Amino acid sequence: MRLLVVYPYIPYPLDRGTYQRTFHLLRALARDHEVDFLALSEHGERVEHRAVFTDFCRRVEFVPFAHPPWPRLFPDRMFHPLPTSVRHWRLPAVATAIRNFAGDRPYDLVHVCDIVMAQYFFTERPGLPLAIDRSRVDLQYQLALREARSRGLRQALLDAESLAKLAWFERRIARRAAVEVVCGPDDETFIRARISRRVPVLVITNGVDLDFFTPAAAPAPRAAVPTVLFCGAMDYLPNVDALRWFFAEMHAPLRAALPELRVLLVGTSPGAEVKAYAARPGVTVTGGVPDVRPYYRQAWLQIVPLRIGGGTRLKIPESMAMGTPVVSTTIGAQGLQLRHGGDILLADTADGFVRETVRGLTDDALRTDLERAGMRTVHDRLAWPRLGRQLSEYYGARFPA
Fold first, then answer.
1. CATH 3.40.50.2000 intervals, the chain
2. Which of 82, 223, 310, 318 could form a disulfide with 136 if both were Cys (CB 3.0 to 4.6 A apart)?
3. 2-207+384-398 classified as CATH 3.40.50.300
4. Does the predicted TM-score (pTM) go above 0.85?
């Protein structure tokens, strides 16, 4: 097959969860098909990594761009039909770059990442089948955000305006799409219930690079005292909300049960709120690190107290591959089809999360069982080559050259 692949960013280095997914799926597609790859580069960042992609793609182009200013509420935002989060990515120069890059080449399929890139193919190559890889279902994510944040009258009005436009846009995208690729069965259920009963949906769950995330890559021993890790981009709202909940309701009871407890917060771009947690006893905020694997190996457990769904949650399969058991909310582990008490511990209340974390930190036999089961699961089901092959074979069968 001849594929045109269009991303809203350059997914390298692999320092964000979404980059892990989009990079490994791109490489898997290029292994079996001819891929022309175009990616946007905000302010020209990451363009120095072009050779990474020319190694496996037929043609590569990076398009520098800058987002326009966010529109004022009145009259520009309220009377424009597009949701602001989508309109923010609608740029004439990008449309021109895609048109020039694609030319009149006879592609069999265009594969885009997320709906912000899908919008360019309403008018561009309308007869070309469109596949959309959804790192999250935007309408589902925005609904979860609305439930999680405080809602004064102004925020309620903004939410109503944004959600109405986004629901309309999601349905329009579904009519254009030949397939929507999602991270888990929960995403498919939401699409069927709230967006479209007819659009084909393919579930390709999130995975892990088992050549990179292996205990042998970071052979240092576990920390000497009970240590938990939270790993992820610290400027991503669901992660910030998860830490806000953890420190408001869980950290103190955990310290009361385990006075020596250490908490490692590892991830890029921590803001003032996240940095302030370093003032609490036993808490370390690292910011971005060159290699997360030693931190996985130090930790006795990884905690994932997410309350807002829709993210890629790569931290869970990575942690399991490194032999570090996970305590998560159901939303945090959404789509991975993991078993409570088998290969993960799950809890959805603050009290329950504290209880399961204490269990995991004090029961050595349980922790060993979780470690072994988690590693079996990622090796059996969640390795990127296996997942990428599923996507590649689906495309080959459904959109033959």
1. 2-207+384-398, 215-381
2. 310
3. no
4. yes
